[in-house]
C-alpha cells in the first residue's frame, strides 16, 4: 500500500519494525568515533564565572546575549583572542545534557523565543588539535544531523528518500560514507522538515577558525541555514578578517573585554585557598592585593595565560617566596602566550633528560593528530620497541590500567609542565590549540628534531609498538 509524499511521488508504507531499523541504520551512518571528544575535553567553567553572559547590561547594546536569545535576530558571534575562553563559554551556554546553570538559562530564554513551537538544539565544536575529521565540515554536519534526527527519526524518509527506498526494497546497507554535498542537502532538508512541523531551531558552532578548509566553505553552510526561517546560530571564532566581514553587523561580544571580573574571581579564589598566600596577606596585605591586580592587568583578558601564571605563582607561594621572588617570577612570565611557552620550555631545557623526554611526548602527540588515549601514549612511551612483542596477551584493566595512566600523568606534569594534560575519558590533549600551533613553528620544530636525533628516537616505531600492545 502507498500514500503520497509532499512532492507527489508515492511513499512506500514500511512495517514499523523495519522502519525503525532503517532509521537507526541511517543515524548510525552519521556517527563517528570522535564525536563528542572535543566537548568533553573542554574544561568546565570555573565556578561563578560567565554569569555576566545573562545580565541585561545596557552598556552591551550590541552584545546582549539574553536579548538575542529571545529576539528574532538570527546570529550571535562570540569572538576573542586565543586563550580568552571562547570554547569554555560556548560549553557553558550550550551543554544542555549537563543541565548546568548557563545551559539552563540559555534554554529558558530560547523557550521564550520558540513559544508554542517545538524547540530543537544542536551543537558542534571544531578542534584543530584533534584528528583530521574533527577539523572538517563533514564532521560538523554529521554531528548536527545526528543530534536533530535522534529527536525526530521519522523525517529520515523525507530527507533521503532514495536511500530509504533502496534500503527497504533491496536491503541496501546504509553505511556511508556521505559526501559533503550530500550532507549539506540532508541538513538543509532536515531543517526544512522540522520547521514545517512548527518547530524552531538553535545551532551552536564553536571554533570556526579551527575548521581545516577555507573559512568561506563553512560560512557558505551558515548562510544557507540562515536563509531558512526560525533558525538561530550562535558561533565563535578568533577575530579573523573573513569572520569579521561576515558578522560585523550581527550581535557580538569580545571575550577579553568582559572577562576581567571572572579573572579576578579565579585568581582570588585560588590564592585564598593557598596557605602561603594567607601568610603573605597577614604580613603584607597591600602587596597581596597588588599581586592580584598585576595579574589581571597583565593578562589582557586571556584566561589561559592567567591559568598558567597562577600555577607558577602558587608554587612560589607554597614555598613562602619573598616578595622580591614573587615579583621576579611574575615579571619573568611574558604577556604573550608564545613567549610564555618559550619560557616554559626554557625552564624544562635546564634538565636535558626531561627536555628530551618532553620532546618525545610532543612529537608523538603531533604524529597522533593532537589527541590520543592515555593508555596508547603510555605504551608508546616504553623504552624499547620490543616491549610490545614480549607483552603477554591479556586485557589491561582495573588497577594495572589506572597505575599506567597515573604514571603517565606524573611524567607529563614533570616533563611538559602543563602543556600536555590528561583530560576526561583518559585522553591526552594539548593544553590549548595555541600549544599545538607553537610546536609547529619552524624554530621549535628544528630544536625538537635536533634533540630527538641525539637519542635516535623514531616516533613511528614507538607508535607501531604501542598499537601492537593495544591489540593484546
Main beta-sheet annotation: 5 strands, parallel
| 3D shape | globular
State the distance separating the first and last CA atoms: 53 Å
Classify the helix fraction into a percent range: 55-70%
Protein structure class: alpha/beta
Strand order of the largest sheet: 4-5-6-3-7
Count every helix, treating DSSP H or I runs of 4 or more residues as helices: 24
Q: Key terms for this structure?
A:
NACHT domain-containing protein; 24 helices; DUF7791; three-stranded antiparallel sheet; repeat; 10% strand; 57% helix; five-stranded parallel sheet; alpha/beta; disordered N terminus; NPHP3-like_N
Describe the model:
The chain has 24 helices and 10 strands. The chain is of the alpha/beta class and 472 residues long. Helix 10 (215-226) links the parallel strand 5 and strand 6 (231-237). Helix 15 packs antiparallel against helix 16 (323-332) and helix 18 crosses helix 21.
Strand and helix layout:
Elements lengths: L1 E3 L5 E3 L3 H15 L6 H5 L23 H6 L4 E5 L6 H9 L6 H14 L3 E8 L11 H15 L4 H4 L1 H10 L9 H17 L2 E8 L8 H12 L4 E7 L3 H7 L4 E3 L5 H13 L2 H9 L1 H15 L3 H16 L4 H10 L4 H13 L2 H16 L3 E3 H7 L6 H4 L7 H19 L3 E3 L4 E4 L2 H7 L2 H13 L4 H13 L1
Parallel strand pairs: 3-6, 3-7, 4-5, 5-6
Antiparallel strand pairs: 1-2, 8-10, 9-10
Helix pairs in contact: 4-5, 6-9, 12-14, 12-15, 13-14, 13-15, 15-16, 18-21, 18-23, 19-21, 19-24
Amino acid at each position: 500500500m502507498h500514500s503520497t509524499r509532499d512532492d507527489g511521488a508515492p511513499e512506500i508504507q514500511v512495517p514499523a519494525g523495519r522502519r525503525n531499523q532503517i532509521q537507526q541504520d541511517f543515524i548510525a551512518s552519521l556517527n563517528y568515533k570522535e564525536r563528542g571528544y572535543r566537548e568533553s575535553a573542554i574544561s568546565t567553567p570555573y565556578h561563578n564565572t560567565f554569569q555576566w553572559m545573562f545580565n541585561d547590561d545596557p552598556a552591551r547594546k550590541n552584545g546582549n546575549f539574553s536579548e538575542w536569545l529571545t529576539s528574532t535576530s538570527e546570529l550571535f558571534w562570540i569572538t576573542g583572542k586565543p586563550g580568552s575562553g571562547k570554547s569554555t563559554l560556548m560549553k557553558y551556554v550550550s551543554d544542555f545534557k549537563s543541565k548546568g546553570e548557563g545551559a539552563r538559562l540559555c534554554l529558558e530564554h530560547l523557550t521564550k523565543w520558540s513559544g508554542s513551537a517545538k524547540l530543537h538544539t544542536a551543537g558542534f565544536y571544531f578542534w584543530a588539535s584533534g584528528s583530521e575529521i574533527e577539523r572538517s565540515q563533514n564532521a560538523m554536519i554529521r554531528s548536527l544531523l545526528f543530534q536533530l534526527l535522534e529527536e525526530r527519526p521519522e523525517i529520515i524518509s523525507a530527507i533521503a528518500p532514495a536511500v530509504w527506498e533502496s534500503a527497504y526494497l533491496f536491503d541496501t546497507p546504509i553505511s556511508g560514507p556521505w559526501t559533503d554535498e550530500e550532507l549539506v542537502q540532508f541538513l538543509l532538508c532536515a531543517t526544512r522538515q522540522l520547521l514545517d512541523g512548527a518547530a524552531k531551531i538553535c545551532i551552536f558552532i564553536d571554533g570556526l577558525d579551527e575548521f581545516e578548509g577555507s573559512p568561506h566553505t563553512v560560512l557558505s553552510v551558515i548562510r544557507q541555514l540562515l536563509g531558512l526561517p526560525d533558525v538561530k546560530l550562535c558561533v565563535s571564532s578568533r577575530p579573523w578578517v573573513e569572520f569579521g566581514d561576515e558578522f560585523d553587523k550581527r550581535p557580538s561580544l569580545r571575550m577579553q573585554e568582559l572577562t576581567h571580573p571572572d579573572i579576578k574571581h579565579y585568581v582570588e579564589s585560588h590564592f585564598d585557598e593557598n596557605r602561603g598566600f594567607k601568610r603573605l596577606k597577614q604580613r603584607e596585605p597591600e602587596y597581596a592585593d597588588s599581586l592580584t591586580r598585576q595579574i589581571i592587568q597583565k593578562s589582557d583578558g586571556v584566561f589561559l595565560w592567567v591559568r598558567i601564571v597562577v600555577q607558577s605563582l602558587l608554587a612560589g607561594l607554597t614555598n613562602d617566596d619573598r616578595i622580591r621572588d614573587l615579583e621576579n617570577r611574575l615579571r619573568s612570565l611574558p604577556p604573550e602566550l608564545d613567549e610564555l611557552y618559550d619560557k616554559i620550555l626554557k625552564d624544562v631545557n635546564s634538565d636535558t633528560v626531561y627536555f628530551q623526554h618532553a620532546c618525545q611526548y610532543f612529537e608523538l602527540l603531533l604524529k597522533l593528530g593532537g589527541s590520543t588515549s592515555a593508555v596508547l601514549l603510555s605504551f608508546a612511551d616504553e623504552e624499547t620497541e620490543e616491549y610490545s612483542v614480549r607483552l603477554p596477551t591479556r586485557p589491561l584493566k582495573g588497577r594495572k590500567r589506572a597505575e599506567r595512566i597515573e604514571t603517565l600523568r606524573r611524567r607529563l606534569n614533570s616533563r611538559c609542565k602543563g602543556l600536555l594534560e590528561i583530560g576526561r575519558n583518559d585522553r591526552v590533549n594539548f593544553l590549548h590549540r595555541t600549544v599545538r600551533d607553537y610546536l609547529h613553528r619552524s624554530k621549535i620544530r628544528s630544536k625538537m628534531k635536533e634533540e630527538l636525533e641525539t637519542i635516535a628516537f623514531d616516533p613511528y616505531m614507538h607508535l607501531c609498538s604501542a598499537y601492537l600492545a593495544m591489540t593484546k
